[in-house]
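Rotation project, supervised by the postdoc (A.L.). Task for the rotation student: set up a whole-complex structure prediction and record inputs and outputs verbatim in this book. Inputs entered:
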Amino acid sequence: MLRLSKYYKPFIRSILIAILLLFIQAMCDLKLPDYMSDIVNIGIQSNGIEQVAPEAISENGFELMKRFMSEEQKESLEGYYIKVDQEDTQYAELYPGVENTNIYVLDKTLETSDIENISNSFALASKTMINTMTLLSAQTENITIPTEETEDIEVNKIYEIMPMLERIPTETIEQARKEAETTPESMLKSVGLVFTQSFYHELGIDSSKMQNTYIVKTGLKMLGICVIGIVAAILVGFSGSKIGAGIGRTLRNDVFQKVQSFSSAEFNNFSAASLITRTTNDITQIQNFVVMMVRMLAYAPIMGIGSLIMMSQKTTELVWTIALACGLIIVLIVFLFKVVFPKIKMVQKLTDKINLVAKESLSGLMVVRAFGTQKYEESRFDKINSQVMKTNKFINRSMGMMMPSMMFIMNGLNLLILWTGADAIANSQLQVGDLMAVMQYGIEVVMSFLFVSMIFIMFPRASVSANRIAEVLETENTIHDPENIEKSDSDKKGYVEFKNVTFQYPGADEKVLENITFTAKPGQTTAIIGATGSGKSTLVNLIPRLFDVSSGEVLVNGVNVKNMAQFELHNQIGYIPQKGNLLSGTIESNLKYGNEEAKQELIEKCASIAQATEFIESKDEMYQAPISQGAKNVSGGQKQRLSIARALVKNSPIYVFDDSFSALDFKTDSKLRGALKTYSKDSTLIIVAQRVSTIMNAEQIIVLNEGKIEGIGTHEELLKNCPTYYEIASSQLSKEELENGRKE
Amino acid sequence: MAEKNNQPRRGPMGGGPGIRPVEKAKNFKGTLKKLLQYLGKFKMMIGIVIICAIISTIFNIVGPKILGNITTEIYAGVMQMIAGTGGINFDEIRRIVCILLGIYIISALFSYIQSFVMVGVGQKFTYSLRKGISEKINRLPIRYFDKKTHGEVLSYITNDIDTIAQNLNQSITQLITSITTVIGILIMMISISWQMALVAVLVLPVSLVLVATVISKSQKYFKAQQEYLGHVNRTY
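Outputs recorded:
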């Protein structure tokens, strides 16, 4: 992955923006359980009352609460509450109970810290009151505790016993307060809220309406946060895709350009199929991985750590449960991969094997049928096929354990949190809503942990792809343009000279060509003949510098090809390959391939020289007739003729025919050569052939045998001096023809 | 032969104007039928898979409802604590936790049995498909191989069959679990509160419409992407 790092650089800004957006998304997602906890704690459990300090309280209630407060608390309370008279209609709508009593209203301008202080005073007073009652009821039987119904305390009943409360000794109250002070804060708050609720009830405030308002308010907040989160998520998706596709595009472009600059030596290193996979599959892999990275790799840790922080704000008691779950998951993953990974590697090898066997039975189809060995091939395939099945079964069954186990761990985590959380609640360290939020955070942490580990699993695969791409991009071209380009020698235009050329393929031991020396002159035909594997094609491949010579020199126009610009060199040469490769398009687009500006006249002329006119004109669309991919809709001979015409249209001083007449019948072959001779009378023709008849009339024939020149000369000379040539010729020509040649 | 090969090998379904469909089955129904026929051999196994999937899903769905009982129990306990009249009933909670643990174990177990059996079916299926192709190669007329490159046939044997296996495995399992989950959860939700269930169900069409519009818009680009990748491929 690192080898491609320069491709991520242009996108750093987008990546940073995406990460920022992810933070926003995570914040939103993290805030949601918090609000849910609020809905449970405040909305449902305390009827939507957010604070213990009542916003308004009846005079009776105020006096009652003050009775159970310490002196300082009482004093501090005075400044915060404003007395409103019974007659004042200002609050009638808000607090209908104001008709019957004077009320105290909380100063709206107070700071939150002050309100918290007041809340604490009220909560403490509430608990103190309950404790006092409990103490009293222990002493005397006849005092009823008015707090049996926790949902709604009948405050009026308490007011009735107010005179009695006045008589309670201060020591008792002090004792009760001391006890109350040891009660946990969340418990105090809950008790306080129950009283506050009763005071509100007394004033005629509709508590269910209050509850609804609170839940709707919080719900709307949640909805808003949800929307922000979704927008952030969508934007992340956008920028992620953009980054991925952008990296994919630059990579594909670069790989393609690199491949275009490859010489045959590099092509031999990678197969064409592998180059295709590298530009398509592998880059798509990278592209998808980048999108995943942006969306998940960045998100998971943010979410995981965020959840942990949020969770520990609620309680630190339960963090160990998460650690336990994560630990179990690690053990599970490591175990599975220890078991499964070697098998996955094995499947890859087996798939290669299955491919190999299938490929062999495909390419050897004729042989298999001719020898009737179908059963053998089938059993060979079957053996590997069942091996693949067994290994795949093992892998998939092992991996199948993953999901159920993960589910079990998650569910178990929930149970554990509930079980230990219940304890914490019993000790008043936690509220119910918080417990539910903690459960969600817990799942969140474990999930993000899973994602991170998943990326660790995906990473090696993407990394393999990245390496395969980097291999192509980092391949040093063996053939470069020279730094100082030599001008061609105008006296030697069209000359092709080999001086003591020796060649061996890179990495090979054997020499394919040895000490080749000859000169091909313009206006002449130089033919190269020899048995298969004698190095004919390799020899002509050296002329357009498809390979570099190992020693010696190849000169075109009197200049060493190593000192020419490749573009200039290729411009000099019309090359007709052994297999007439055409590109998808039309006949015309193919013929114009080497010469964009060619006029219709020239195209038709060249087509007629190549003896292609007849079949072109038999087509309905003539020159606009389509050529399919791989030129499957024209025959081999037609392909050869079209590729000859294509080279002729280029109108270059040197033509190289690499066995380009092999698929033509004898008559077409000779007609074509006749027309060629007139058209290219000033050009240098270099023809590789297997048929003696094709080259008999050449000015110069080179006989190759195992990479060495066995003889150079005309047909007649060679028949006399060169046994190898005579051998070839005698196998192809009739006796009279041979005799004629010898006599002349 | 020159003219015939010129046409795209996979004919356009319904003939979308100008757009060449990417790798779409020629005859989806027919292909499906053939696949099902092949699968017929595995009737028993698939039956087991279905039963296991249903059991596992049911237990999976029942879980949260029982889990809810714990929360309720804790909540009730807290209310009593506030009133000072009692506390959380830990015995009850322990009982529910034990029940849940059992449910989770059963759910996981059946889910694993289901995947275990399904893997067997999928692998045997791919094995027999591969075998079938390897034997068919020896019976096909030679002409067939003039039209198809070796690479294509090879990719049938490896890639395409792998894809079928994967999809088969996932699709069947997912189909069963999804249907059971939807029905089960619906029943659960209704049993908890039919009003809330109704709200959740009402959201579905909205999201469906949303998803449908997004897909209909994006499908075009997926096709285009696939096609351009093909172009890149062809340039070599």
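Student's summary: Residues 56-205 of chain A form one domain.
Supervisor addendum: Chain A has 28 helices and 15 strands.
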